[in-house]
């Protein structure tokens, strides 16, 4: 979650390069991967094997390639997608969460969660539920404090819902997102206030489980602006575009940090999004 993760990683590698150069200068020889293995050192290779290396390759040159790889990552164009209202709609007010079948299912599960925790009657659970809904962060924060549990534990019980029964108008988002993914210069990120368990259920249902390089769900932040700030320091803000249907949470915070933004009203608007890309 560190906003400086890439920069710090790059600086660590550069310090490693300095040590390698000192060794090579003092021994008057080039340090290779073979030498590393012979002296029982671990190979400094990335687990995805993005940079191919052989036994006779120079460690210094390899590390230089690693630095270039990180710099290339920092210069990538990033698209941040919201989920609710962007990849699909609900059957609530203005096609949103409020009054939707999803909200009703969540509240029913939350009520059962309270009853199970405290052996409450329906009326007693209703009182706790109403108080929790007044919390500035949300019901999950209220109940996590009340019961001394993590929000994740709450979400895993309450939001374990079948998406096929509650989401609508997902059109052909899988085709659109997959087409964007083919461009290696684009990094696709999903940023949603929804909990991880619901996000995973939705992505699997929409056949998008492997299309986003990074996913930020509701357990990881209180306000989306926290994640926008992290990404604005990790990548160039002018190379980032936020796609969402909520001006106050998806658009304005991004623009405030120098990012671009694309406001949509329905998932169908994604069909014209590629023509408006960065």
Describe, in plain words, how this protein is organized in 3D.
It contains eleven helices and five strands. It is an alpha/beta fold and 278 residues long. It folds into three domains: 5-74; 77-93 and 169-276, 3-Layer(aba) Sandwich (Rossmann fold); 101-164, DNA polymerase, domain 1 (Orthogonal Bundle), CATH 1.10.150. The chain has a five-stranded parallel β-sheet with strand order 3-2-1-4-5, with helices on one face.
Could you give the topology of this structure?
Elements: H1 5-27, H2 33-38, H3 59-74, E1 77-81, H4 101-118, H5 122-133, H6 139-147, H7 151-158, H8 173-181, E2 186-191, H9 196-205, E3 214-216, H10 224-234, E4 240-244, H11 247-256, E5 260-263
Parallel strand pairs: 1-2, 1-4, 2-3, 4-5
Helix pairs in contact: 1-3, 4-5, 5-6, 6-7, 10-11
Beta-strand portion reads: 5-15%
Radius of gyration: 24 Å
* Number of H/I helices: 11
The succession of helices and strands, N to C, reads: HHHEHHHHHEHEHEHE
Q: Which spans have pLDDT < 50 for at least 5 consecutive residues?
A: none
**Widest sheet: strand order?**
3-2-1-4-5
Instruction: Say what the CATH topology of the largest domain is.
Output: Rossmann fold
Number of domains: 3
User: What do the pLDDT scores average to?
Assistant: 90
Query: What would you give as the CATH superfamily of the largest domain?
Result: HAD superfamily/HAD-like
Report on the biggest sheet. Answer: 5 strands, parallel
What global shape is seen? elongated
Name the structural class: alpha/beta
């Amino acid at each position: 979650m560190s906003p400086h993760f890439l920069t710090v990683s790059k600086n660590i590698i550069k310090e490693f390069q300095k040590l390698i150069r000192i060794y090579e200068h003092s021994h008057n020889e080039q340090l290779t991967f073979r030498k590393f293995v012979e002296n029982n050192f671990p190979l400094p290779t990335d687990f995805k094997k993005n940079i191919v290396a052989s036994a006779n390759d120079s460690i210094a040159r390899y590390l230089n390639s690693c630095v270039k790889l990180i710099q290339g990552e920092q210069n990538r164009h990033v698209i941040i997608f919201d989920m609710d209202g962007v990849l699909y709609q609900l059957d609530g007010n203005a096609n949103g969460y409020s009054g939707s079948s999803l909200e009703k299912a969540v509240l029913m599960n939350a009520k059962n969660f309270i009853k199970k925790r405290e052996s409450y009657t329906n009326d007693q659970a209703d009182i706790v539920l109403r108080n929790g809904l007044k919390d500035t962060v949300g019901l999950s924060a209220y109940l996590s404090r009340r019961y001394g549990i993590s929000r994740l534990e709450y979400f895993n019980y309450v939001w374990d819902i079948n998406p096929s029964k509650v989401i609508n108008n997902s059109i052909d988002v899988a085709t659109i997102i997959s087409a964007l993914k083919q461009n290696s210069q684009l990094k696709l990120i999903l940023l949603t206030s929804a909990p991880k368990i619901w996000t995973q259920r939705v992505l699997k249902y929409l056949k998008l489980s492997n299309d986003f390089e990074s996913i930020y769900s509701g357990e990881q932040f209180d306000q989306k602006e926290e994640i926008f700030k992290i990404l604005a320091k990790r990548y160039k803000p002018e190379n980032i575009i936020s796609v969402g249907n909520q001006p106050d949470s998806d658009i304005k915070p991004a623009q405030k940090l120098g990012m671009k933004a694309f406001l949509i009203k329905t998932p169908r608007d994604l069909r014209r999004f590629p023509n408006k890309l960065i």
